Amino acid sequence: MPPPGAYAYEQPGTGLAASGTYLDAASGLALPQGTELASVGRRVGAYFLAIPLSIVTLGIGYIIWGLIVWGKGQTPALQVLGMRCWRPDDRRVAGWWWMALREIVGRIAEGILSVITLLVSLILMLTRPDRRTLHDLIAGTVVVYDPNKVLSS
């Protein structure tokens, strides 16, 4: 069942119902049934959760963990909080290479001017209806909350 504010019926010519997706009214994106666009609070929480996870795993453990879960469209912090990266263009979970693009190239782009680009990324997430950050725009992803693990495979 789609979350409140979503259209559950098939939009003519989109094939949304057939593909197991629904049109999210707020963002205009095709999202998987049983998921919703991750809230700003959940996204900010994931950003700050990555810091203690990196410390506890001594950095190298976090990198290895990340390389493993990228194939599931997640980062370690996203995995702990039940979120995944979704590619609306492909209507599927972001694969390993899309996550590598998002996490390596996207994060480098965010860090080029340090605080300025991080602030721009935060402003993008706060003001865009699809809540995309700079690294999401680079990889063509959105972060969805998947409480029932419908995207696990």
Number of strands: 7
How many helical elements? 6
- What's the helix-strand series? EEEEHHHEEHHHE
Strand order of the largest sheet: 4-7-5-6
The secondary structure category is alpha+beta
Helix content: 40-55%
Distance between the termini: 20 Å
Query: What is the averaged pLDDT score?
Result: 89
Describe the structure.
With 153 residues, the chain is an alpha+beta fold. The chain has six helices and seven strands. The strands form two sheets. The chain has a four-stranded antiparallel beta sheet with strand order 4-7-5-6. It has a three-stranded antiparallel beta sheet with strand order 1-2-3, with no helix packed on it. A hairpin with a 4-residue loop joins β5 and β6 (92-93). It is globular. 31% of the residues are buried.
Quick summary of this structure?
The chain has six helices and seven strands, in the order E-E-E-E-H-H-H-E-E-H-H-H-E.
Features:
about 150 residues; alpha+beta; four-stranded antiparallel beta sheet; 6 helices; about 45% helix
Write the layout of secondary structure elements.
Layout: E1 6-7, E2 21-24, E3 30-32, E4 36-37, H1 40-56, H2 60-69, H3 76-80, E5 83-87, E6 92-93, H4 96-111, H5 115-127, H6 134-139, E7 142-145
Antiparallel strand pairs: 1-2, 2-3, 4-7, 5-6, 5-7
